[in-house]
Amino acid sequence: MMRLPSLMYYTKLMAKDEEANGLLSEFSEYKDQKEFSGRTDGGYDSIASPTSETTAINDDSIWDELVSILHYSIPLIITFLVGLGNRVWDVWFLGKAGSRDMAVASLGYLFATVAGVSMGTGILTAIDTLVAQAFTGAKNPHTVGVIFQRGLAVMFVFGTLISIVWVNAEFILVSMGQDPELASMAQTYIIFSIPYLFLSYANTTIRKFLQSIALKSFWPGLTKEAFDGWSEFLKLGIPGMLSVSTDWAFEVCALLTGVLGQTSLAAQSVVLTINTLLLMIPAGFSTGMAVRLGHLLGANEPRKAKLCVILSTCSGAIFTLFNAILLYVYRETIANHFTTDSDVIEAIVQLLTVACLCHFIMGFGIVLSCTLNALGKQTIVAGLNLVSYYLIGLPSGLYLTYQCQWGLEGIWSGVAISGIIKSVCELIVIFHIIDWDHECKLAANRVNNQEYTLVA
After folding, report:
1. How many of the other CB atoms lie within 10 Å of CB of 402?
2. How far is it, in rounded angstroms, from Cα 136 to Cα 133?
3. pTM of the prediction?
4. What is the Cα–Cα distance from 304 to 21, expressed in whole angstroms?
5. pLDDT per residue as tens digits for the range 231-240
6. Helix, strand, coil percent values for the chain (each to nearest 5)
7. Where does the record place a coiled coil (predicted)?
8. What value does the mean pLDDT take over residues 386-407?
9. Stretch 281-310: mean pLDDT, rounded?
10. In angstroms, rounded to a whole number, what is the distance separating the alpha carbons of residues 371 and 303?
11. Is residue 454 within 8 Å of residue 142, measured between CB atoms?
12. What are the sequence ranges of the domains in the chain?
């Protein structure tokens, strides 16, 4: 959950963003409900025909837009890194305890991620789309508060269903060929993680809401409207769930290749944790970009929206390339910090050689996928992930692992192959197919469908 200092910092930064986007000037008097009554179907009258749309993009506007994106992103990057810190410490302590404990934790974590956490995160991409666009496009500010409550209700139901699956984790893991003793110990890990599942869903819902608006005037009080309009929410959420879940195809591979032994699972745990930690940088950056993009779409600013995406794509590539280089240069240092087992250290060093390439591809892909999710294109992302990861990446990874005897390196190589294919396709969709004027109209229609009307 975003901490108070970060939230205050984020709010202050947004206040400085007025010259770059012209949005917050429209919201300086949020408490006055009449502020929202001047909106047409395309958005606020004052925003629907922005003067900036007729102004050529110059160096100053590019710099201002980049600063705006960073203002949105920096607090989120810090929040994401801090939020994953407990996972890093867990793996570090388990590494000192021995490879078996690390293998059990890795197995439990992989199962929990694939069969629950990632799917919930995917469903909640609906909030990224709906709340950010309603922020600048809704006639009534309480609309976004209703969307937030709707997200909590949906995730409570979904979490209950996932808990039933988790209770039977041992049976599922053994059926997948895992060591029965490891599966039994992993079951205990997973059972104790069930409360975390619900808290994680609630935290993610709250965080996505705050990162999109961070203003209390949008809270309408508890309302039964939260139990209406689920169809529009799930229309975006279910494809979002599929898009995120398919991103974890290589973790499915890791589960299927548990027969590789404790050393491989322990190495996978360390490399996956470090990779995920560093991915929080492009994840936080792209989330801030998605908020900014949603605001621009809701405000009917197609040219600024396209500029936002261009700058975010270039910046994301630079961030992830830098991180990938760090992973490669310091791979031996990383391995020695997490464990004293010589076999595990060797496995980590070998795996990081391939993982650094995967990190660059995955980090760049996060920015692209987040862009499409912000546009409400979760179905496209899900389709591309399904084809690239499950139909190409997963079979390739298993082939390289078993037939070519590459071990875990084969799994990550399969991820690299599928990631390249997916990223190329997403680049084509974003820069050659998307019509930004049309996307602004879709955003207005989407907000209209979610509109919340106060009862006098």
Report:
1. 15
2. 6
3. 0.68
4. 8
5. 766 766 666 6
6. 85, 0, 15
7. none
8. 86
9. 89
10. 15
11. yes
12. 56-450
